[in-house]
Amino acid sequence: MSLNYQGQLQFICDTCGQAHELKSQHLFFDVVDSEEKPKATDTLYQAEYDFVCEGCDKDIEVTYEVWEYPDGIKEEEKVTITNATVLKTLEIIPEPV
């Protein structure tokens, strides 16, 4: 399977309130875990992105996780951002290769 995604991750810095957008082309998802189940493979994709807030020089760390099960179906999505609050997530579309 392959992970197709588009749009922008939008969030604000918790320290200074600076708005940020992380475009989909700056996130690269890798398979970090998979488990064979009776009907299909359960796959975890993960992308990480670290940068410094332009408004206050605070480090911001993004971890984006997407679980796919069964093949081609997004089961769950989780965005963890250190020192910021998520406003909008990407559009995630698992699809066959």
Descriptive notes:
- With 97 residues, the chain is an all-beta fold.
- The chain contains no helices and nine strands.
- A four-stranded antiparallel beta sheet has the order 4-5-6-7, with no helix packed on it. A three-stranded antiparallel beta sheet has the order 3-2-8, with no helix packed on it. It has a two-stranded antiparallel ribbon with strand order 1-9.
- Strand 6 and strand 7 form a beta hairpin.
- It is elongated, with a radius of gyration of 15 Å.
- The termini are close together.
- 16% of the residues are buried.
Q: If you average the pLDDT, what whole number results?
A: 89
What is the C-alpha radius of gyration, as a whole number of Å?
15 Å
| Secondary structural class | mainly beta
Count of β-strands: 9
Query: How would you characterize the largest beta sheet?
Result: 4 strands, antiparallel
Distance between the termini: 5 Å
SSE series: EEEEEEEEE
Share of helical residues:
under 10%
Count the DSSP helices. 0
List keywords for this structure.
mainly beta, 9 strands, 3-stranded antiparallel beta sheet, 0% helix, 97 residues
Produce a short descriptive summary:
This protein is mostly beta strands.
Secondary structure topology:
Blueprint: E1 2-6, E2 8-13, E3 19-23, E4 30-36, E5 41-52, E6 59-68, E7 74-82, E8 84-88, E9 91-95
Antiparallel strand pairs: 1-9, 2-3, 2-8, 4-5, 5-6, 6-7
